[in-house]
Structures
1.
Amino acid sequence: MKVLVYSSFTFSYLNRARVLFQSLRRFHPDWETVALITDEPPPGFVFDPASEPFDRVVWAKDLGIEAFRGWLFRHDVVEVCTAVKGPFLHQVCEAGVADIAIYLDPDTALFAPLDPLVEMLQHNDILLTPHLIDPNDDRAAILDNDLSASRTGIFNLGFVAIRTTGEGARFARWWNDRLLAFCYDDIPSGLFVDQKWCDHVPALFDRVKVVRDPGYNVASWNLSKRKVAITRDGEILVNGATLRFWHFTKLGPTGDVMTKRYAGDNFEVYEVWRWYKEAVGAATDPAIPERWWAHGQFDDGTPIAKPQRVLYRERTDLQAAFPDPFAGGYQAWWKAEGPGRNG
Amino acid sequence: MGQGDAPERKRRALATAFDPVFYRTVYDDIARVGADPFRHYVETGWREGRDPAPWFSVLAYLERHPEAGGDDPFAHYLLRGWSEGCEPSPSRHRERFLERIGGPRRPASAEPVPPALEPVLPSPEPVLPDPEPEIPEPLASLPSLPSVPVASDPDLPAGLTREAARALIAADFDPAFYLSAYPDIAAAGQDPLEHYLLAGRWEGRDPRPGFKAADYLEVNPDVAASGVDPFLHWLVAGRSEGRPLRFELGFRGRIVAGLAPLEARMAAAARAAADISADRPRGLAPLSAASQAAGLHVTFSHDDFTKRIGGVQLCLQAESKGLVRRGIDHLHVFPAVPWPTLRPAGSRAALGLVWNGRTLGHFAVGDILKALRKRRAGARTTLAVHSLLGHEIGEVLDILAAAGARRGLFWLHDFAGLCAGYHLMRDEARDCGAPPAGSAACRVCVFGPGRDLHLSAHRRLFEALDLTLVAPSQAALDTWSAASDAPVAAAVQVHPHARLVPSGRFAEAVEGPLTVAFLGMPSAYKGWPVFTDLAERFRDDPRYRFVRLGSAAAPGAPADHIEVSVTADNPHAMREALDSARVDVAILWSLCRETFSFAAYEAAAAGAAILTGPDSGNIAAFTRTGGHGLVLADEASLFAQFESGTVQSLSRKVRRPEICEIEYSGMSVDLLEALS
């Protein structure tokens, strides 16, 4: 059973991705690992894929997405890094290069083998992990977690695993189609990048398994209902189940506050986070500027504002007039005739 | 905003966080027309891109969080955004506002600000006209109105005068705590309340026990963002709103938060070691000189046992004296600077030497080897390893080979043979039980990266030498045996450092509160946080009196300090102090597996009952087998004992324990004969 695992990121998340892929190699050295990158290396940073802890790199620009530059411009960094997940997964299915394909966010890390997922995929074609597997009772936790999941998606798409045939392949094609056209952070319109779409999955596809094992996709949004323990045998348990992977969302003060709010005196949670911060620190290359993203700016270096992307996204006439909006034309139009004319 | 956001909740949130003084100060057209700032902001201001507070930029927030579009971004942030991790940016008018109200509101440095530089609270100031009106078309046609006086200080909650604020703070401020916690204020002779009001509160100093400004701001990010004095906020609003004072992480969570990476600790030790230059080799002459001694005994530990005091040092002092009495030369080798782990191969560091109880200095290992090789061969040579911390295993074996020593003792004073975390405390927070080296627990532990170094070095040590493993307790030996893969030869021995000898004298019955003591260094792994939590909880309970017996005072501790210094000349000081203080109960809540624990013997000898937890190694074993007290299941059980008062059954009055003498063993000397 050939398994392929991929993660989608930019160079500012390379440190996290390194930690993820290192953890994958520890437990699954025989699985193929792919870095799906929507970015270009920053000046001064020498990117040598051969020395990275993944097997190969796929550049988003090589996915064959039609009118790629214009499509790319329509998305901010989160939107585009989630949007490319669908096309790649679909192409893995089409190419038949693996029996099982797993997506993991770059800010996840494994603590135990994922073999049970492979076993689940003997009887299912699609595996999803919900943000919550137990309802919250506390009002603040409901506001923070339950309602957040209601807005952004029942399932967390930091993880999805499929068989590359059957319903898995059908899901990949559907996800590809939707994400190419509708992968935006636009909650009022019913969209939240690639994630909200997957609320439909149990309705649209057969052979779907909702993984309700608390050892998968542990994150600040579900810590209110998950208790972490570390045994004298050396195992890390979550509500008594083996911790398989953790989702270290929001590395930094904001994430710390959310973690403290829900972990409380469950100090083992801070132990896991302490390790992760140290590991990411060790994997960080100072040559990569913080928040680096090559496509966050016009070709002349001017930062691209979100409204400039949104207007381009909404106006097909602008897309037709400026097929490469990163070049000067669209920027000049924005200043002379667009909303930018008022300064 | 979600449909569930009730208008009243939104209004209250906005009213609380809105800063009318800021608004009037930076938008002088509002002041000039006499408009109510809050109403203006809610009705039109935010749509015009005006900012509601110095810490919040409407336009920056909208740009970063377009999902807030259509609603007031400030309301979005207060009701939802902050909890989702949205980060606000300060208003572009902030600096101008701060200048107008009298300069930065916080001292730039942590140094106290002299009173002359800043009044207790800034005086009310008139609103200054804005030279650059925010509105593109200022309402110039309206008549100019007199400036509106500021009702309160910008740092104050709305409607509170500075006099009222001062009175509120004064009522809950604890001057004795302040002076105890901040000795610099006491030393400067400053009035604690005045200092707190002037500078301390802006420097992050805490006004009373139980209120930590930094914790309050972390758990209440809206207060942090508002820039108000956190203590004042709590007094005025937070307390009645039931706001938490802190995230309740527990002491273990706090320990984990403060951990430095092992690599950084080792690098610091390596830097310190590099600063020590080796002495000239002529200082090594005693090692090579012709000797009439009956033999040579070489020992290794983590420090100079003649200079420091502690369990291992006491063992070595006894060992050294015993060797001198038997006419055997004693060479002790220790790292010149303390190391948190064994020293990795390839690192260079000078080694300290003690020769027959006299410190010779620090020397290069090459010089030590040369000196030892010159020594007359033939005399019987033995060895004892007490600790390899700071030692490089290759050097250790070279030194022993040069001295001609192969047979000897390996003392199990700690578990450095199993892990770099030689207390077996995962992340210094909890007993780990030495799980398999590749386990998930070891991978997350701060000591994980050093475990292989320790395991492989000790394996090499046991492979190269003929060592007898000596454990000071069966409990220590059991832990080692379960986890070590070092090839220990058949020789394994339990040899306690001391034993109790009944005196025939019984403790006197004492009236009054139960005296509860902590013994020794107030360190986390000895259970100090558990003791302080207990003492805090019951500090006002007349049934109990809490004391700490140790050499140095612990500032701010909720227990009376009784000074005790155990030295080689006065090894019974702790037992005598326990006896004279009539201590009923010793809380020996070690979080790690003690391999022996002199403190447990001292407590029992003095007639104090021991209360300990399940992870305390030989303390638990000693307490259980000797009937010296209670081994409780967990910290909750400990608190329950005090809450219910059942702990009173351990008083001297009830128990009438027999006082004992402590008879110390000869340590290694007792065992050397067997080696010959």
2.
Amino acid sequence: MTRVLARTRFFLRVLAIFVLLAFVAPLHAQQSRPVDPNADAVTEQMLLEQARRIEGWIAIPNETAAVLIQPAGRTWRYFHEVVLRWIGTIAILGMILLLGIAYLVVGRLRISAGRSGVKMLRFTPFERFSHWLTATSFVLLGLTGLNITFGRLLLLPLMGPDTFTTFSEVAKYVHNFFSFPFVLGLVLIVAMWMKDNIPRNVDLVWLKEGGGFIPSKHPTAGRFNAGEKLVFWLALAAGILVSVSGYLLLFPFYVTNIAGMQLAQVVHSIIAVLFIALIVAHIYIGTLGMEGAFEAMGTGRVDINWAKEHHGLWLEEERAKGHMPGPVSPAPAHPAE
Amino acid sequence: MARMKFLCDAERCIDCNACVTACKNENEVPWGINRRRVVTINDGKPGERSVSMACMHCTDAPCAAVCPVNCFYVTADAVVLHSKDLCIGCGYCFYACPFGAPQYPKIGNFGTRGKMDKCTYCAGGPEADGSEAEFVKYGANRLAEGKLPLCAEMCSTKSLLAGDGEIIAQIYKERAVTRGYGTGAWGWVIAYREGITM
């Protein structure tokens, strides 16, 4: 009896195996198609959907090299080649055009009462030194900076590749090293003139009355009028932005990664071209645009009538302090500057 | 004329760095310069992937577009090369390059990084083919001798392929079809504006 049972069990087991095989075999045949052993492996597309760049591990001690692919380079290229050139062209040429129109329409703003021949000190030699230190550095930085963006279009065809490379290499060093006197000048200017540039109520009146651009009106102002204050604060803000972004660019990858470097260049170049447009306007009003303005920074002394018309409150303050304008050697009507 | 490309079959790359070593030796590049490198993604985790990367010799190369002094040029084989005599070492090509290819000999600032160096596809530079001057500045010119870049030639698993784009794409496709899977040619869409369709 036990033998019969054992045989039956054996038979049933064999049968079960065959039945199982009958079901499993087709499944197995289907699976003979190669299985992707790396089905869970990352793909380029997947990684780029997750993050802006693909980074990994690298055997060399250069973290920057661990970035495998950064598509943002294409975006930065578009900015540099197209966006920046348009912004720069519109800002700078637009400002020059605007000033040209202003010159044609309003003309040079004359001292209404004519020159008195009496002059008084407006800027001390140290103030003028600080201004010209910043100004000289700014002009050099501006021109050499524009060369990086526009030189290839404008100067390369004129100079030829070898000369243009030599020029650009020198320009690059000038740009790097004149950043230091520029920042020093900016710090000095801010330290000296900050308190006189704090907005006051009189600035609103000055703005309402056309800011001295309407020859019949002479809105009064303190040491600096609202226009000068605007230039001061904009120059300070732009100066900080270009300096910080500039030093990031000067020391590449010391403090930031590739995205930070691209952003620094974007900020640096946009602010720089706007800054240049602002300073072009500043140069215009300080030279061609207004009679008697340049000598404030030239010799440091301005005509009393000019001071009365443009900075009446400041003149009174100076008088109250006892800084009376001294008698001056009779000046010609239009002194050569 | 051929349209030279690189293709790294990431299923095969084992991060052995033979390509890096071959490149360094063949071109005698100075310390600190890595014309080719291997980056490992998800290192030590499931789904790890290594990719060997150098200059991809892009179509409409971004480096050439942003160079302030226009020092890049493209050969008849579509290899992107540059002149170290014209380069001012400003570093802009590195910002534009999607693959981190440009290298600089010095870690110094914007002004003192030296002339840019990058993968030449073992095709030298503007100097006379095979000249000493060319070798000193740019390394080997294997292409002029009818040979392909040494990194791909020495790849231990034949992961890294170099040659005419259509031919290496075909080799990759056949591989992927035979083994039944593939994650595509890394960097191709960005470099050449076209992937490899299966």
